[in-house]
Amino acid sequence: QLQLVESGGGLVQPGGSLRLSCVVSGGREDYYDIGWFRQAPGKEREGVACINYSGRFIKYADSVKGRFTISRDSSKNAINLQMNSLEDEDTAVYYCADSRGTLVETLCAGMDIDYWGQGTQVTVSS
Fold it and tell me: Quick one: 69 exposed, middle or buried, by C-beta within 10 A (0-12, 13-18, 19+)?
């Protein structure tokens, strides 16, 4: 069974940066389409950034375009989310999730997901 474990969350000031990592175990990371999602208190879960198995196709939510970068690190069997210029509105629990053979648009819409990670808290506050 595939397992996804997120790490890298924490407390950061507005304008700061964090790098989240989603380590895949029980399978090779380059077999799976992976998405990063977030859920803030009182809000629905939203797709933040999604990448297909090859890294060729990527989708970002409009709210993070130009600030967040999703990438694959095959050496660590991980998918990273570099978050720059963080804003208070980025505060949320961040999750990674996987799918196979899914369009990144479909994955980022929260459909066709097989497994979720447990989440990592990101708090942006001065």
Answer: middle
Query: Within the chain, which residues score under 50 in pLDDT?
Result: none
Give me the pLDDT at residue 1, please: 84
Torsion angle of alpha carbons 59, 62, 65, 70, nearest 10°? -30
Are 49 and 81 a contacting pair, CB within 8 Å?
A: yes
Relative to beta strand 18-25, strand 68-73 is unpaired
Please give the pLDDT value at position 4.
96
Q: State which H helix or E strand residue 122 sits in.
A: strand 120-124
**pLDDT tens-place string over residues 63-93:** 999 999 999 999 999 999 999 999 999 999 9
Q: Running DSSP on this structure, what letter comes out for residue 104?
A: H
Q: What is the dihedral of CA 55, 58, 10, 44, to 10 degrees?
A: -140
